[in-house]
Amino acid sequence: MTTAPITEPSADSRSLTRRRMLGAALAAGAVGAALPLGLAAPARASAPTPAPTKAPASGAAAGPVRLTLPAPTGHHEVGTVVLRLVDTTRPDPASGPDGHRSLMTSIWYPAHRTAGYPAAPWMSAGALSALLAGADIPAGAVLVPFTAGHDGAPAHPGRRRPVLLYSHGAHGYRADHTVIVQQLASHGFVVVTVDHTNDAITEFPDGRVLTPHLPMSPADCAYDLGFVLDRIEEIAAGRNPDADGKALPQGLGEILDLDRVGAFGWSKGGSATALITAQDRRIRAGLSIDAPMIFKTTFDIDRPFLMLTAENTPATAPEVAAFWPHLHGWRRDLHTTGAIHSSYSDLQSLYPQLAPILGWDETKLRGLIGTLDPARAVRIQQTYPLAFFDRHLRHRGGHLLDAPSRDFPEVTFEG
Prior knowledge:
By secondary structure, this protein is an alpha/beta fold.
């Protein structure tokens, strides 16, 4: 069961800046290429950073530019389902007509088959419209990427799968690390992502769209994660927690292994991951992605914990330095040379596709994604989280996390 938050730190604003940059970039791309409104048909990328369809030559009819995401590398096809979960113990009039806290979540899982099940978009149309609203561009002005996930596909039967919870950054959205999420699902994990309502861009089934308007602490987000995990336990027990009675994918409850649960998050979501790992013994392993750890550390963590760092390191952030000694289980601090705060996110794949459309030079692009090569960034995103959860939830071999690798010279072991 969920427990009360153990601290009330302030929110990190860096994710908001990145989100506004992405919204402006997508909007500018729509204007520069004179794109039509509406979504494109589903597409799945086959390379880490595929080139988008280019704008037509002068005088030719404008055609759509479809952004893409890198395909996952696992042998499983991927299913996904969106659920609305209502916490009746937490009043929150802003997030739902019933007056309680309402959370939009997505569950990603290995699928038995995907033929006949539509590919899921990176964001819903309403959420994408809100993302672009700051640049005064109509919703649907760009072609949203489609993911490797297929909506409602039956789960792959035969074995129970470890479950992972994902928490986004401040003023973000649950789609912001889809590259990592669908990678893990393709390798046999069940991943649950959540929009932290009031601090997220989120669209509800009735068409309501909320944008960030209230401060949410990492402790608030950690509480959300615990509540969502309670609902996942209901699914495993054969019940359906969706507030609207939406049908669950066939076989989903049977594959959930709640003895092997992990959590990960980016930025403020990484701070929330540290808190939920400390307070909830159901979490067996935690991964933070460049988290600022913006809280006073008054607890210890005795389970495996990995930090992937870029800008928020023990050497540069006093809060991260204070957090590090409280990790008493297996621990690593892996730093990627040339990375910036967004380098572990989907932006690393999306920005290079926008650059030729918008006429960005190399200096402009590097200011947005760092000096880390985008294709290398995708490889790191797809490799290190998988290696960590493989090791600590599936007890699979491999020495990638034991020492620096010649295959990844950018990744250095700081602790």
